[in-house]
């Protein structure tokens, strides 16, 4: 994490009605680990002087979530395994974590987003220059490869409505950072956030080269058989955090917010949209995409947006945004998003892509 980012961070810990919002300060114990230039924080602890909450920075990734203790207990082993690929966890940080018994949680998360194989699969989806389906030698694969995909579509949508680079952009649900990487040419500063540690770590290694650069990834061909593919050049203006948009630990507002395939997996989609609106500048742009793959495991049925005979999801999502004061600039439906696991296995989603402008109210 860049040291200069600390001055923009705020405490996400819950208080009645809203996050704490206090400033975060870098603690002296455990001793912060910086790069040779003193500009990159590889390891340390951020503390809120107002409520006392503490947040670790591990392998350059700050974990800024409310009730962070529960997240750490559930994800401790994913965290340590991921950090091991980026230089490991130092002795002082290990002692600090173990003193808080975060490694003794009795409920460990089972989260495929954190698994190395899936990090590589999403990396292929986000960065591969070969269209999914182009190499499987079947008519269906060739057809899939010929279709415009979500990244291509939303880049075109944004280009039509941006007069030039904006100051600040936020990518919510960034995963391995493909959208954040594209936003890097549209904004002076880009921050990507996600609830999963290992995808965010991969994004930061790919795009900033810290704490260790990642130059290639595994593109699976069949089962475990894979080839190594190169990754794009690093960017100087992207940064990544483990954080939630509903308790955003960042001061100020953004001129552009993107949230690709997130709204249908948050517990309260309408409240989520409202929080995004609060973080936008007046006249700011919001880009939402979703295949509306509602599932009661993620979203209670009563919280689904539309998905009924009377109100299909695409129509109701537009209404919800308009009710929040947004003007719809573009609405493009049935845009393919293809998740390629290997040459013989694809997951295809048809996304609804909406670009909206926040009103000045």
TrEMBL record:
Record InterPro entries: SAM-dependent_MTases_sf (IPR029063)
Please, which domain of life does this record's source organism belong to?
Bacteria
Q: Which SUPFAM superfamilies match?
A: S-adenosyl-L-methionine-dependent methyltransferases (SSF53335), Trm112p-like (SSF158997)
Query: Could you tell me which PANTHER family the record lists for this protein?
Result: METHYLTRANSFERASE TYPE 11 DOMAIN-CONTAINING PROTEIN (PTHR45445:SF2), PTHR45445
- Put simply, this protein is called Trm112p-like protein
């Amino acid at each position: 994490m860049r040291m200069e980012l600390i001055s923009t961070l705020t405490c996400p810990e819950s208080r009645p009605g809203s996050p704490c919002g206090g400033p975060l300060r870098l603690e002296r114990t455990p001793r912060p680990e910086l790069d040779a230039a003193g500009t990159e924080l590889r390891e340390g602890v951020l503390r809120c002087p107002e409520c006392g909450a503490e947040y670790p920075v591990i392998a350059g990734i700050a974990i800024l979530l409310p009730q962070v203790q529960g997240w750490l207990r559930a994800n401790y082993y994913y965290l340590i395994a991921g950090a091991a690929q980026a230089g490991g966890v130092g002795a002082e940080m290990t002692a600090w974590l173990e003193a808080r018994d975060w490694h003794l949680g009795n409920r460990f998360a089972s989260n495929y987003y954190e698994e190395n194989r899936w990090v590589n699969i999403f990396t292929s989806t986000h960065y591969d220059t070969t269209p999914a389906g182009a190499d499987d030698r079947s008519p269906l694969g060739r057809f899939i490869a010929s279709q415009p995909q979500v990244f291509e579509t939303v880049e075109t949508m944004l280009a039509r409505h941006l007069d030039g680079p904006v100051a600040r952009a936020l990518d919510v649900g960034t995963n391995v950072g493909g959208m954040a990487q594209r936003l890097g040419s549209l904004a002076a500063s880009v921050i990507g956030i996600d609830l999963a540690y290992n995808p965010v770590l991969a994004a930061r290694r790919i795009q900033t080269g810290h704490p260790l650069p990642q130059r290639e990834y595994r593109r699976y061909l069949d089962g475990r058989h894979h080839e190594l593919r190169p990754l794009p050049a690093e960017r100087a203006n992207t940064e990544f955090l483990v954080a939630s948009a509903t308790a955003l630990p960042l001061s100020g507002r953004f001129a552009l917010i993107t949230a690709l395939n997130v709204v249908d997996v948050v517990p309260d989609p309408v409240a989520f949209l409202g929080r995004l609106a609060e973080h936008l500048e007046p006249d700011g742009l919001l880009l939402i995409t979703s295949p509306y793959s509602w599932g009661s495991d993620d979203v209670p049925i009563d919280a689904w947006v539309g998905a009924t005979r009377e109100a299909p999801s695409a129509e109701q999502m537009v209404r919800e945004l308009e009710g929040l004061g947004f003007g719809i600039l573009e609405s493009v439906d049935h845009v393919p998003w293809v998740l390629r696991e290997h040459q013989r296995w694809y997951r295809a989603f048809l996304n609804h892509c909406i670009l909206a402008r926040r009103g000045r109210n």
